[in-house]
Amino acid sequence: xxxxxxSQLPMLLIDDDPVVLEILVTVLESEGGVNNVLTLTxxxxxxxxxxxxxVSLIVLDLMMPHVSGLDLLPVLTRDFPHIPxxxxxxxxxxxxxxxxxxxxxxxxxxxxxxxxxLLLSVENALHVNELSLENRNLREYLLNDRLEHPAAFDxxxxxxKKMRAIxxxxxxxxxxxxxxxxxxxxxxxxxxxxxxxxxxxxxKGAFVTVNAAGxxxxxxxxxxxxxKKGAFTGADQSREGLICxxxxxxxxxxxxxxxxxxxxxxxxxxxxEQEFYPVGSDVLKxxxxxxxxxxxxxxxxxxxxxxFRKDLYxxxxxxxxxxxxxxxxxxxxxxxxxxxxxxASKSLNKPKPTPSREVTALLSxxxxxxxxxxxxxxxxxxxxxxxxxxxxxxxxxGLAGNxxxxxxxxxxxxSKEMDEALYGFFGRFPTIKEMEEYxxxxxxxxxxxxxxxxxxxxxxxxxxxxKRLGIPA
Length: 473
Hints:
Layout lengths: L10 E4 L3 H13 L6 E4 L5 H7 L4 E5 L7 H11 L5 E5 L4 H9 L4 E4 L4 H30 L16 H13 L6 E4 L6 H11 L6 E5 L5 H9 E2 L11 E2 L1 H4 L4 E5 L6 H13 L1 E2 L8 E2 L3 E6 L3 H6 L5 H7 L2 E4 L10 H15 L9 H9 L5 H15 L30 H11 L5 H15 L4 H8 L3 H8 L4
Parallel strand pairs: 1-2, 1-3, 3-4, 4-5, 6-13, 6-14, 7-10, 10-13
Antiparallel strand pairs: 8-9, 11-12
Helix pairs in contact: 5-6, 10-12, 13-15, 14-18, 17-18, 18-19
């Protein structure tokens, strides 16, 4: 087993044979890298010990005097369900093994226990314990609807419940050693999410970003793993890769969907073994950097077309964050608009403008294929064009373009709540003519009587709107 076991809490070994305990402790410390192992030879002290001490897992012998492991196991799984239990015995009996697993044990070992088998079992049990803890924390966060560290998300401007749920999930998984996959369309803020995770992880090392887009395997390997002197033409001196720069911290690998298969295999080894070879070197190096990866591509489609390895995906998606596009959280648009107006006006040394009603109305229904990044660029350009008075539609190049229509908008699916709202507003179910008149009137009010803007909101030609209003085109 190549990787070291990681556990913040001590492990507890229970066996009446001191020699067996000494052997197990030696294996865990020398080959597993564990530096905190506790032992008990008297099983009668187990419950009191657990009430006084926190442990990450228990390795329990079944055949002991006073209280056997068979009798103790149901008590442990009932009173301490958060602690995974590995049972071991000198009896290689399938029936006993099955009964122990049914009673709540996570694994069954037969004496004499092989070192590699013990380490693998402990590693799996620690993983089970980590996931169980994360699930408990996640349930607590969801039930209490609170953030422990809201300042970590200050860079992300949002009022969306969807985004708040993501923040709560991030607080649960931030300290995990498992990789995190962040997906979402271009411009939704994947790097901001990754940086928030890095902040909350508690890691002292640097947050290092690598963009994999356009990197062939040679460039990927050199960028990530570095090279030794003379590894290739022009390699006049050794250079450490960015994975070394991220030691003790976080490596954020963006655009992972663009990696070729050879690079994917190297990344898979890095995740599985936490080790790598610099280019041109046969000296193995280890890393403790935490990995966060992101892509705006559909990983499922890439897997289906054999462009992305399944085994790599399964390693990466231990924790998966899908960021919704801006059109699915339109409630964020007013806050983002105000934030970008503030920043742009300061940058350009202009007074902060007030957007007109038509601008606010059109932005609230715009498709935003580039998401938050597109809104940012749009507002920055508008402020640059702004001179005085209200910030009008004329400052927003492209907002009122010919390609803007309701076909770009997210269509609403009728629901019982919407139907009841219509009944409540009209006092009955409205006719199509009544709805047309109402929508036309609302669009004109929102745009302060600007026919061009109102037509854009309604998704119809300006001439059509003029006819409905009885105004000559």
